[in-house]
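EI: anyone free to look at a 131-residue chain?
SC: sure, send it
EI:
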Amino acid sequence: MRDVRRVLIAEDDFMYRATIARLIEPLGVTCVAVADGLQAAALLGDLSQEFHLVITDFRMPGGSGWHVVEAARRHRGAALPIIMQTGESQYSDVYLRAEELGVPVIAKSDIFSLLVPAVEAALAGGAATGA
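SC: here you go
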């Protein structure tokens, strides 16, 4: 029996949170979903909780995706994979900063085609890709 992988989802929009969970739960993961970056950062700081992947929105009230990335790096190190998804994909600075941090970005319009392969790659230890 393989270990269950836990994925932290930080997304302020309920429908996107539910969609992300619905897309990736068939991969055999357990999703822990929160509505903002501050909640995600608090969970990442609680080292009694294990996470194998973080999926975060870029823009959220109560702590942005960058806040989540910073908390993940500070508390979990660079080995914890992170995928950022955003409706702000028209802004090149989002992609440039994400590339600096080693975080792939997926446009929300592409989550149906790109999220599952990115999650599979991240959980397998490969580089997740975004568009």
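EI: The mean pLDDT is 90.
SC: 👍
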